[in-house]
Amino acid sequence: LSSEASDITTSPFTLVFERAGVAFAAALMNAVILSAILSAGNSGLYASARMLYSMALDGKAPKIFARLNKRGVPMPAMLLTASVGLFGFLTAIIGQGSAYTWLLNVSGLSGFIAWVGIAVCHYKFRKAYIASGQDLANLPYKAPLFPLGPILAFVILIVVIAGQNYQAIVDGNLLQMASSYIGLPIFLLLWLGHWLATRKQPAVAIDPWTAKLN
Length: 214
Hints:
Layout: H1 12-19, H2 25-57, H3 75-91, H4 98-131, H5 148-162, H6 166-171, H7 174-181, H8 183-198, E1 206-207, E2 212-213
Antiparallel strand pairs: 1-2
């Protein structure tokens, strides 16, 4: 699949079709890729809008996002989600793509932070389950080698987060450090804002085993 051209952006799939003598190979692959992108964008828009709508119903997002139109579509949530997608597209052309790089780093790091939370929640769930006198045999699924799994996942994720751009730390490049780790302060600010907004709300006791309010 080696290309004689110095441009490494040539798709290997396009080269395969060209070598096979398929006409309009580049156009065909562009159509396939565009279809995949549109499908991913459509599913992402649907899932994100409904997630925001659900959060609004639970009081974890502004109530305006809990509104539905006559067809049962959460329009405010969908419009906000679409505007975020539009902003992400525009960042690709702002500052020669540097803004997109910052946004991509925020998104990527947020994924790792979310999985850190999942590992912690899994560990604490199992501990609380046993402490409440429940039998592990009643669980539909028991993670093997517990607690090794969540602990190992937690450690690996912390290492990955810390090593996002360790070279920038070694070189003392503050701009690259800020670009690579910008997701951490944003996450902490969001967490702090949520804590400040909900700290005075009365706690609701929920029995996690029967899913009934006490």
